[in-house]
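Entry type: protein chain
Record version: 2
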Amino acid sequence: MSLVEKLRAAASFDLGWSLIQRYSVLVRESGSPHERAAAHFIATRLQALGIPHETFEPKLFLSVPKGGAVEVDGVEIAGKPPSFAATTGKEGLAAPPVHIPAEPIRGAADLFRSTVEGDLPDCRGKIVITEGYPMPVPVKRFEAAGAAGQVYINPGVRVHWGICTPIWGAPDESQLRFKPSTPILAINRPGGDHLLQAMENGTGQVTMHTELEEGWSTCSLPVAYIDGEEEDFVLVHGHYDSWDIGIGDNAVGDATLLELARIFHRHSDDLRRSVRIAWWPAHSTGRYGGSTWYADHCGLDLHRNCVAAVNIDSPGCWGATRYDEVPWMAETETVCRKAIRGVTGMEPGRQRPLRAGDYSFNQLGISSFFMLLSNIPAEERARLGFYPVGGCGGNIAWHTESDRLDIADRENLERDLQVYLAAIGEFVMAEVLPLDYRRTLKEIEEALTEYEAMAARRFDITAIRKALNALVKRLDDLYTRIESEEIETGIANDLLVRLGRLLVPLNYSERPRFEHDPATPRLPIPRLAKLHEIEALMENESERLPFVLTELRRNANEVAQKLLEASWLIDVLAAPNRKG
């Protein structure tokens, strides 16, 4: 029996279910006594199992919603301000409303972009009423247009908590200007219908009330260490704070992490690589504050020794039996497909990882996979009248008071646990890391082909194409030599990790290595994304054009250089006469 088979055979959910039951009475708001009690539960279970661990106590920047409403014609409609919106004060904000309709949200990816098409009407000094969720992209767009406040009509009878800042983790001083500066509120569909009807009837003013507590709070961040033969490790992680009780988002993930710690610790003598398991605070009210803090304070260690990262959020929820939208980076595809297929017999559908969740390690060049895993089948969601949400297996209890114990499904959790064990086990035990960067280059090449069409006769990116073609040839040869065992295992693994440090940021990040991109959508090769604007800027003879071209030239040089550096690494580290 292989180790992966042994790991899967050890899968059960007794310990994990005890955590879910404990968390079912804890409102794990970051910085609160209940969150600290939740961290203490994790630490005491790790201690009882004899698993080495430590609990960090970072000071994190949080914004905690306390209440909100919008008044129209003497009627108060209750709502929830998203984290990092502005507080109105007791008097509220009174202003004329303007309705700017948004397109319906058709998938989880739509949550993170603006669904308002075309030019905006005059928003200056007005309260914008629109549909959807108060996410960073539309919030920023309306603020830039001069909106004094914003009210978002959620799709159903529930009002969902959220977070509207684009700043990833705690801001540094230069980022503070990107924090929203106006009051923002979410209300439910019936409340929105009442508000829109009042506007249609001629109401000339509405009043917003928002209250939030913002500042620095000390939180607990537990990390378990399971040592294998090698210092290199797989980081397995998920957030343990929540909106309200938050069983589906993310007590189920926290329980899964605890079971993974138990099982890998039991088999630690057989592990080739180490496993590190982390539970993050400040995901919900700090825009991934815990994982960002860890990336900042342990960044050098992660850069040297982390071979892959696995995000666990909302597994094993009620009705979640399909794997149609599973995030993974291209280079991890073989392992992800094999794990899901081997456990469930299903063929999963891949989703390119969004700039969301706790994907706080892209800029470090760490190949990552999973976040959301199993989902309620799309046809069942349609039958139930569920609209797209960002967790809980697709259940609209996500980010509401309804996310309670009945959202967890023990049988689904045990199945998803086996998927994680199979995938992580492959990374932990493989002699050569199962990272296929040929797939990454294919994704980069497809993106580059689109950029070339946009750049044609407008902007020269031939140096990138030349560097990419050279790297493709070298990479094909490299994997042929690895598979034929012409390259020593240690050299092969070192080279694959180093290649990831170059190619993952190239494919997912825009800012320098130890900084964090904003929580807004990222296209492949994000440094070239402004090529999408070139044609329109030229047609309109925009004053922005020379500035954008200057930025693109610098970014294009950076992209070409990273590709050339990857080729150089292969030439040097995989030279036929090199000795290990």
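Comment: The radius of gyration is 24 Å.
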